[in-house]
Write a structure and sequence with these properties.
two-stranded antiparallel sheet
Length: 52
């Protein structure tokens, strides 16, 4: 792992909207809410530090 661990970050508003939509339709269903984009924590930290 050259850039360390990774995470999938999702905007809170997107999660709220997904939950709202699912609550109208799905019953006893597992729903995976993600951006499907893996981001290395160290990569994100380097970008943040370079910006400031």
């Amino acid at each position: 792992m050259p850039n360390g661990y990774t995470r999938d970050y999702v905007y809170v508003e997107d999660v709220v909207e997904a939950n709202r939509l699912v609550s109208e339709e799905a019953v006893n269903t597992v729903i995976h809410i993600s951006s499907e984009e893996e981001i290395a924590i160290l990569e994100m930290l380097k970008k943040y530090c370079d910006d400031y």
